[in-house]
Specification:
Order of helices and strands of chain B: HHHHHHH
Oligomer: heterotrimer
Distance between the termini of chain C: 33 Å
Largest sheet of chain B: none
Strand content of chain B: under 5%
Shape of chain C: globular
Number of strands of chain B: 0
Structural class of chain C: mainly alpha
Shape of chain B: globular
Radius of gyration of chain B: 18 Å
Number of strands of chain C: 0
Structural class of chain B: mainly alpha
Strand content of chain C: under 5%
Number of helices of chain C: 19
Number of domains of chain B: 1
Largest interface: B-C, 43 and 52 residues
Helix content of chain B: over 70%
Largest sheet of chain C: none
Number of helices of chain B: 7
Order of helices and strands of chain C: HHHHHHHHHHHHHHHHHHH
Helix content of chain C: over 70%
Radius of gyration of chain C: 21 Å
Chain lengths: 309, 217, 479
């Protein structure tokens, strides 16, 4: 990315946009259910309120518990700097940054789990083990979907990959790109603990995955976690948005508008999916994720076979 | 047209994987119906008007495939399943997770096979031959992995669909009557299988084929 | 027209009997259909019918199998009339569940022998499976249902593979001659030399595995013992004696295309290999076999293996195989019909429960012994001559040890058969039991079949030998 303006725009989007997404999702769910729902900007108020409160730390916790939310947020933020938002590339753009992106998300997940285990409470431990198990199924799916996206460009760099994607329906690779979009959508739901993988609105600890890992956090830590979750949603959604919406490579106002529209659309779709589906039984989630990963594998195989003469 | 045909065939592969992953009998049969619709569209997309094959021939094939594969056969199977009161399959010999993974691997194998065994003619460019092999192989997997009679018949249908897809590369080689005859044979075969399933469910009160293992040496 | 009548008359009679269930109608249609079919087949020997379009044509190979089918059907039909209407039958027999399907079965088999179009061949072979499945399930019992289900599924899957093989063949033909490929035997043999090798071979493999499943070649034979043992005896006779041949005809048609292409060595190797595997596997299962109908079924697997070996070896062995097709069909059909008589007398298919059959069944017993000798390859019966021909041809060929292996397996198989059948026949009748009064219709058909087998062992008429030699030449034999 060249110039201070695009970088500033990217950072601004990255910092200011995330809390809007849970707002859109909540509003969509409410409207589908026939209610008016919370205001769109409610998440900003919640985060602000949490920042002003004090934190309480349990006695068994160590520095890991305090560091968890911070590291997760930082990792997600850096991942957000790598992934292109409103333009064809992000401020951090280097060879192999797709792999770095996935690794950063993994780092964030690891520290969230570590902080949960650090509380020495069985609820958080249960959540951490579930997160680890499901993460093992999400990672291959995410990687395979990203592989599909990287094959036409032949490079594991976001800038090149997005530049090489076809945009017309008549190009031969569009069916596979469609598969990549579907699989990324499923991984989006899984990574961000949405229905049908996890229910963000449940209050029964035994049915939670992500919510239960952060039970003991309070005050600014909880603010970081809430904000971090929304940031992760934005960052992973950005992948999907670039697949389905033609964001111009140079960015500019057109890029920002397209990106905002795309992200809003993704949030609405998530809201609709959450309203119309129930959460899968925990035993069925691996099957669901494996199916998505197998689908992505088929897409990769088709692309590879077609690519070679 | 190639892209559209490829898209159709990719969707056929997706339905194959969906059938492998599904333990609900009704879902499997309905997915077969969806496959039937896709396969009925295939001749028109592949050979289209002006592709060297008479339009009447193509329309007859499409209509026949639609009626048989997407209409009558799924209806027969759904009725058989409903009469047998069977909803969900018991845990199959090859678990659902493993089936899906094996299925993806078999799709990869088919793609490789199609590169080795390049078909003559100009359809080598599309996904036709790989999808044909893959659907046939995945049908085999279903036949071997599943215990319920209805899902075994679904596996047989997938095998037949795979052969049908391959046959599409030869459209025009077979007279229309013969192709319709092949479809009719399939229909009668599934009809007879449906009757057999009816008898099995009346005899054993279920359609688990593990009960059909008493004859041995 | 002649060919259409051959196929259509049994089909029409079959449809008629589906509609009208009265016993006289059923019996009349069965016997009338058998007689008409036999008459039309005999007429075909004198005036060979002309081909009809692309679909129907009768060459020497088809003529051979058609004749076997027709004669066997007549014998089984006569036997079935007695078998199903006799008062000692353990279940009130519902003729309308039997006759229509039997007639449709005949029609389908006739179509298999009378077509040169590979797709029509496929439709006909699948039709034989569909027509015979209800016959297997005639006795509405659990094991019969199991046998019918396995038969239906395994054979349909095999036949689907054969369809893929047919399509592969068409694809190969497209490569050889651009434009719409012909799927007739003439068209394919003409295009054969230019066909890409890989596709032709793949097509043959698929056809061998697919139609070979229906034929009963190991390792795809697993459905056969169950099916042939659970079906009623006249049906078993037809299944073993006629249907397996028709499936073999499917393989032979593909083999003919391979011959025309000049790449027959690959096909011959596969045929010989699968043939030997079949003989070996069947022989192993003959020993200690409890059910005598299953015993006969495994013997059918073995004999199908012999046919495959004969054709695979080529030369004089192919003539031996064609002669063996006749011998085995007649002998095996006779054996199954006699098994029906034994079953009715003893009420069980358990071989160990049957003792002193030679005494208790004064007509069927000795016939059973005679046919046992025949099927074991003993002189002076027919199978001895045909197996000897194959053995000699194998010895004279490049791999003489194949001949040694062949004869060794056959000897072992004979021992296996003897081990089960002889105890059944020997032994005196238990005190106080009366030898059965056997009805003529139940003994005449197997007697006629046994007589033919004996005749062929002693003297093969010149005309028949010439005819078989012509057939053998068509499928790659040299003499």
């Amino acid at each position: 990315m060249n110039g201070i303006l695009p970088v500033a725009a990217h950072v601004a989007l990255l910092v200011l946009l995330p809390p809007l997404l849970p707002g859109i999702i909540g509003k969509t769910k409410a409207l589908v259910a026939g209610r008016r729902g919370p205001p769109l900007l409610q998440a900003y108020r919640d985060i602000g309120k949490l920042l002003r409160k004090g934190a309480v730390y349990g006695r068994p916790t160590t520095w890991v518990f305090r560091a968890g939310p911070l590291v997760a947020l930082a990792a997600t933020f850096v991942a957000g700097l790598i992934v292109p938002l409103a333009a064809g590339s992000g401020p951090l753009d280097f060879a192999g940054d797709v792999v770095a992106f996935a690794a950063l998300l993994g780092l964030g997940r690891f520290f969230t789990m570590a902080a949960a285990l650090d509380t020495a409470s069985s609820f958080e431990g249960m959540g951490a083990s579930r997160e680890a198990a499901f993460g093992a199924f999400v990672e291959p799916g995410l990687f395979l979907a990203l592989t599909i996206v990287c094959i036409p460009a032949g490079s594991a760099t976001f800038a090149r990959a997005w530049a090489a994607l076809p945009w017309t329906v008549w190009s031969p690779t569009w069916p596979v790109v469609l598969i990549a979009a579907v699989v990324l959508g499923i991984m989006l739901l899984a990574e961000n603990s949405r229905i049908p993988v996890d229910d963000p609105a449940t209050h029964l600890e035994l049915t939670m995955i992500h919510e239960v890992m952060v039970l003991d956090h309070s005050g600014p830590d909880l603010a970081f976690i809430t904000y971090g979750a929304a940031l992760k949603l934005l960052v992973v959604a950005a992948l999907l948005v670039h697949l389905v919406v033609p964001v111009p490579a140079e960015g500019g106002w057109a890029g920002v508008l397209w990106f905002l529209a795309g992200t809003a659309a993704v949030a609405v779709v998530i809201g609709v999916v959450e309203s119309t589906n129930a959460r899968l039984r925990l035993q069925r989630v691996p099957g669901f994720l494996i199916g998505a990963a197998a689908l992505a594998a088929v897409g990769v195989a088709v692309l590879v076979a077609r690519g070679q003469p | 047209m190639t892209a559209l045909a490829d898209g159709l065939l990719l969707l056929v592969l997706v339905t194959d994987l969906y059938i492998l992953a599904s333990s609900r009998l009704a879902a499997c049969v309905r997915a077969t119906a969806v496959q039937g619709v896709l396969l009925a569209a295939l001749p028109l997309v592949l050979w289209g008007p002006g592709g060297g094959v008479p339009l009447v021939h193509l329309l007859l094939m499409s209509a026949g495939a639609l009626a048989v594969k997407a209409g009558v056969i799924p209806a027969l199977l759904l009725r058989a399943a409903r009469e047998a009161n069977a909803r969900r399959e018991v845990e199959p010999y090859v678990s659902l997770h493993l089936s899906v993974l094996l299925g993806a691997a078999l799709v990869g194998l088919s793609l490789w096979l199609a590169r080795v065994l390049v078909p003559p003619g100009d359809v080598a460019a599309t996904l036709l031959v790989p999808a044909a092999f893959a659907t046939a192989l995945l049908g085999f997997l279903m036949l071997v992995a599943r215990k319920y009679a209805v899902t075994q018949v679904v596996g047989y249908l997938m095998l037949d669909n795979g052969v049908f897809i391959f046959g599409q590369s030869l459209a025009g080689a077979l007279p229309v009557m013969v192709e319709l005859g092949i479809l009719l044979d399939l229909l009668v075969a599934v009809f007879v299988m449906g009757i057999a399933i009816h008898h099995i469910s009346r005899e054993f009160d279920h359609i688990d084929t593990r009960a059909l293992a008493s004859l041995r040496d | 027209m002649h060919l259409v009548a051959l196929v259509a008359i049994p089909a029409l009679f079959g449809l008629l009997t589906l509609r009208w269930r009265a016993v006289p109608v059923q019996l009349g249609a069965l016997l009338g259909g058998a007689a008409l079919h036999l008459g039309l087949t005999a007429a075909a020997w004198v005036w060979r019918p002309a081909p009809l379009g692309d679909s129907l044509a009768l060459d020497d190979v088809g003529m051979l199998f058609l004749s076997i089918t027709s004669v066997l059907f007549a014998a089984s039909a006569v036997y079935a009339v007695e078998y199903l209407t006799a008062p000692t039958h353990d279940e009130p027999a519902k003729l309308h569940r039997f006759v229509p399907y039997l007639l449709l079965f005949l029609s389908a088999m006739t179509l298999v022998t009378a077509t040169h179009h590979f797709a029509v061949l496929w439709v006909a072979i699948e039709a034989t499976t569909l027509a015979s499945a209800p016959l297997v399930y005639f006795y509405r019992r659990g094991p019969a249902l199991e046998a019918a289900w396995k038969y239906l599924m395994i054979c349909s899957v095999g036949i689907a593979l054969a369809l893929l093989g047919t399509f592969f063949l068409a694809a190969a033909a497209t490569a050889a001659a651009p434009g719409a490929p012909s799927l007739t035997l003439r068209g394919l043999t003409a295009a054969a030399p230019a066909m890409p090798r890989a596709w032709l071979r793949a097509a043959f493999v698929l056809a061998l595995v697919g139609y070979g499943t229906k034929m009963g070649l190991a390792p795809m034979h697993t459905w056969l013992p169950d099916t042939h043992s659970q079906a009623p005896s006249p049906v078993s006779a037809l299944l073993s004696g006629a249907l397996l041949n028709c499936a073999f005809l499917g393989v032979l048609r593909f083999f003919q295309v391979c011959l025309a292409s000049g790449d027959a060595a690959f096909a011959r190797t596969l045929l010989t290999l699968l043939g030997f595997v079949s003989i070996a596997v069947a022989t192993a299962f003959l020993f200690g076999q409890r059910d005598y109908k299953r015993l006969f079924a495994y013997s059918s697997v073995e004999n199908m293996g012999i046919l495959a070996v004969g054709v695979g070896l080529g030369g004089a062995a192919t003539y031996g195989a064609m002669l063996h097709a006749v011998n085995h069909s007649f002998a095996k059909a006779g054996l199954f019909l006699l098994a029906g008589n034994v079953l009715r007398r003893y009420g069980t298919t358990d071989a160990r429960a049957v003792k002193g059959a030679a005494a208790q069944l004064p007509l069927s017993g000795p016939l059973l012994f005679a046919l046992f000798l025949a099927i074991s390859g003993m002189p002076p019966f027919g199978p001895f001559m045909s197996e000897l021909t194959i053995f000699q041809a194998a010895l004279a060929g490049p791999s003489w040890w194949l001949g040694v292996a062949f004869i060794a397996l056959l000897v072992v198989a004979a021992l296996g058969l003897a081990g089960v059948l002889l105890p059944m026949l020997q032994g005196g009748a238990p005190a106080g039991s009366v030898p059965a009064r056997e009805r003529a219709l139940a003994v005449a058909p197997p007697f006629v079949l046994a007589a033919v087998v004996l005749l062929l062992g002693v003297y093969v008429p010149g005309a028949l030998a010439d005819f078989l030699a012509r057939v053998a030449r068509l499928v790659g034999g040299a003499s």
